[in-house]
Amino acid sequence: MMLAVDGLTKRFGGFLAVNQVSFEARQGEILGLIGPNGSGKSTTFNLIAGNLPPTAGSIRFEGADIGGLPAHAICHKGIARTFQIPRPFRKLSLHENVTLAAYYGEVGGITRAEAQYRAEEALGLVGLPTDAAAATDGLGAAALKKLELARALATKPRLLLADESLGGLDAAEMERAADLLGRIRSQMGITIIWVEHIVGVLMRIVDRVIVLDHGEKIFEGAPALAAVDPRVTEVYLGKGRS
Question: Cα separations (Å) of 155 from 13, 150, 189?
Fold first, then answer.
C-alpha cells in the first residue's frame, strides 16, 4: 500500500477539523478526496504533506510512519503537493522556478545540470515552454496551475497531492487539466490523491473517491456509487436540505 491513514484526527482548540479519518491510497491509482466546504479536505491534505501535525492517528507512506514530519522531510520521502493558489517566484523564469523545486526535492543534493534537466522534463510534460528565458509575467490561471504541477513533478515524487487543480479554470481548461493528471499517472507511474470541489470532471478521472463531511469520512468507493449514495447526495450536493 502506498499510503495508509489510520484514525487521523486534528483539533484546533475546541474545534474538531478531522475526526478519526482512515483510508488507503493504492500504488498507481488516482484517488479523489471531495466534500463540501469545511469538510476537512484541506486539513487532511495539510496533515499528510507535513504542513500541520496531527493531534492523533497515524500516516504511513510505503510502510514508514511520517505523521508529524515537517514539509521538507515529507517531500524528501517522495511526496509532493500543489497548492490551491499558485505563488511562483515572479522574478524568476518558468525554468528557474521549476529548477529550484528540483533542488528542494533532492535530499542528497543534485548537480545544476540534473536540476535543469528535471525542470525541462517537467515543463515539457505539462505543456509549458522549456525556454530558459520564458517569464511568469502574463500567465493565465491554466498556465499557473501547470507551473504548480511542474514544480511538484520536478521533485520526482512517487505520490502527488493535487489540491484543487481546476479552480479558476473554464470548462475546456478543466477537461484539459484533468486529462493532464491522467497522463502524469500513466507516463510517470505516480500515485495521485486529488482534492477538488468541482466534482464532475474529477469523477471522470479518479479510480475511487472518498467523501468527507464535518471532518468525518462518510463514503469510500467507486465514483458511480458515490453519485447515487443518499448521504453523499444530501451533504455534498445539497439535496434533501431545507
Answer: 34, 9, 14
Helix (H) or strand (E) holding 83: none
Compute the distance between CA of residue 89 and CA of residue 66 in angstroms, rounded to an integer.
Answer: 29
The CA-atom distances, in angstroms, between 40 and each of 10, 19, 129, 151, 166 are 9, 9, 36, 25, 19
Give the bridge partners for 5, in sequence order: 23, 59
Query: Does the predicted model carry a pTM greater than 0.85?
Result: yes
List, for residues 116-145, the tens digit of each pLDDT value.
999 999 999 999 999 888 999 888 888 999
Please tell me the distance from the alpha carbon of residue 133 to that of residue 34, in angstroms, as a whole number.
Answer: 38
Q: Are strands 208-213 and 30-34 parallel, antiparallel or unpaired?
A: parallel
Q: Check: CB of residue 222 under 8 Å from CB of residue 208.
A: yes
For 146, the grid coordinates are 501547470
185-234 pLDDT tens trace: 998 999 999 998 778 888 889 999 999 999 999 999 999 999 899 999 88
Q: In what order do the strands lie in the sheet with 56-61?
A: 15-25, 3-12, 56-61, 64-65
In angstroms, rounded to a whole number, what is the distance separating the alpha carbons of residues 121 and 112? 14
Are the beta carbons of 213 and 236 closer than 8 angstroms? yes
Q: How far is CA 136 from CA 93, 129, 181, 205, 228, in A?
A: 6, 11, 22, 29, 43
